[in-house]
TrEMBL record:
<feature type="signal peptide">
    <location>
        <begin position="1"/>
        <end position="23"/>
    </location>
</feature>
<dbReference type="InterPro" id="IPR036434">
    <property type="entry name" value="Beta_cellobiohydrolase_sf"/>
</dbReference>
<dbReference type="Pfam" id="PF01341">
    <property type="entry name" value="Glyco_hydro_6"/>
</dbReference>
<protein>
    <recommendedName>
        <fullName>Glucanase</fullName>
        <ecNumber>3.2.1.-</ecNumber>
    </recommendedName>
</protein>
<dbReference type="InterPro" id="IPR001524">
    <property type="entry name" value="Glyco_hydro_6_CS"/>
</dbReference>
<feature type="active site">
    <location>
        <position position="109"/>
    </location>
</feature>
<keyword id="KW-0326">Glycosidase</keyword>
<comment type="similarity">
    <text>Belongs to the glycosyl hydrolase family 6.</text>
</comment>
<keyword id="KW-0136">Cellulose degradation</keyword>
<keyword id="KW-0119">Carbohydrate metabolism</keyword>
<dbReference type="InterPro" id="IPR016288">
    <property type="entry name" value="Beta_cellobiohydrolase"/>
</dbReference>
<feature type="active site" description="Proton donor">
    <location>
        <position position="147"/>
    </location>
</feature>
<keyword id="KW-0378">Hydrolase</keyword>
<dbReference type="GO" id="GO:0008810">
    <property type="term" value="F:cellulase activity"/>
</dbReference>
<keyword id="KW-0624">Polysaccharide degradation</keyword>
<keyword id="KW-0732">Signal</keyword>
<keyword id="KW-1015">Disulfide bond</keyword>
Length: 319
């Protein structure tokens, strides 16, 4: 942690003149003690802003706002290097491991509820390069571009190779500029893209240069189904390209499994909070529980990415 390092160096003016550098041994779990709880997540902000909404505020605070989960970064994040550095530094100060999601690929969500993204190839390269630089030597977990590979087929043929090249560039940036980050390329979910096809896409997108891949991001499939899919993708990478890869599972909303719908479906439930292991590298709350998938399902008035206390309560109760 930087504060501890600087405190030790303060005893010697000579030592203070030497640049401080973190060891680049690559394992963020060994540098931290548990996952970082984002104090400015949408649920946490809602809890602070609605103290009189009892007992719902207590319920959401206990079940969601005080749990470790992902911070999503995109074209709403302002100066991306500053935003990422600020977030990861806050986690570093308390020796916790932050979870970040890079979500700004051009043509994001193929123009759906979460459409948008960087305006050009060059803009994205600059953005993702600065994202990785904002982490630098601090420990972190990063999920790279949810849905970008699984939605490859919805792009015009001429744009598919460009997307693969951008994802490969993103992977290289984290490998080069964030040596203590475990980066995971998004690999869809258990029923979307066949495991062998996803292995081809992950390989083409440079997964060999980073820690691994992520499954079930913003979806509802059970941990068992997601682990089976992840293991099948890893086995396909091994048999076709000579290397297996570890993976993480988004368990934020998979407590009741999937009913086949993806957009604010009824009857879903919070899953296992962020932890190491569980049949994967990690089980993580990547999607923020209570944040809407779009104007659809049981919450039709809340745009994608905005928090709904009603949706949060549904997930807590499993209704």
């Amino acid at each position: 942690m930087r504060i501890k390092i600087l405190g030790l160096l303060a005893a010697s003016m000579l030592a203070l003149s030497v640049p401080v550098a973190q060891a680049a041994d690559g394992n963020p779990l060994e540098k931290t003690n548990g996952f970082y709880v984002d104090p400015d997540s949408n649920p946490a902000q809602w809890v602070r802003q609605n103290p009189g909404d009892k007992p719902r505020v207590d319920k959401i605070k206990a079940a969601i706002a005080t749990k470790a989960g992902g911070r999503w970064f995109g074209n709403w994040s302002g100066d991306i290097r500053t935003a990422v550095d600020t977030f990861t530094y806050a986690a570093d100060v308390v020796d916790k491991l932050p979870i970040l999601v890079a979500y700004n690929i051009p043509g994001r969500d193929c123009g759906g509820h979460s459409g948008g993204g960087a305006g050009s190839v060059d803009a994205y390269k600059t953005w993702i390069s600065n994202f990785a630089a904002g982490i630098g030597g601090k420990p972190a977990v990063v999920i790279i571009e949810p849905d970008a590979l699984a939605q490859l087929d919805c792009l015009p043929q001429a744009e598919r190779q460009t997307r693969l090249e951008l994802l490969k560039f993103a992977a290289a940036q984290f490998a080069q500029k964030a040596p203590n980050t475990w980066a995971y390329m998004d690999g869809g979910n258990a029923t979307w893209i066949p495991a062998a096809t996803m292995a081809d896409r992950l390989h083409a997108a440079g997964v060999s240069t980073i820690r691994g891949f992520a499954v079930n991001v913003s979806n509802f499939h059970s941990t068992q189904a997601s682990n089976t899919y992840g293991n099948n993708v890893s086995a396909a990478l091994s048999s076709k390209y000579g290397y297996p890869k570890p993976f993480v599972v988004d368990t934020s909303r998979n407590g009741n499994g999937s009913n086949g719908d993806w957009c604010n479906p009824p009857g879903r439930k919070l899953g296992t909070p962020s932890q190491v292991g569980g049949g994967a590298d990690m089980l993580l709350w990547i999607k923020v529980p209570g944040d809407s998938d779009g104007t659809c399902g049981v919450i039709r008035t809340i745009p994608a990415g905005e928090f709904s206390p009603e949706l949060a309560e549904f997930l807590i109760d499993g209704t």
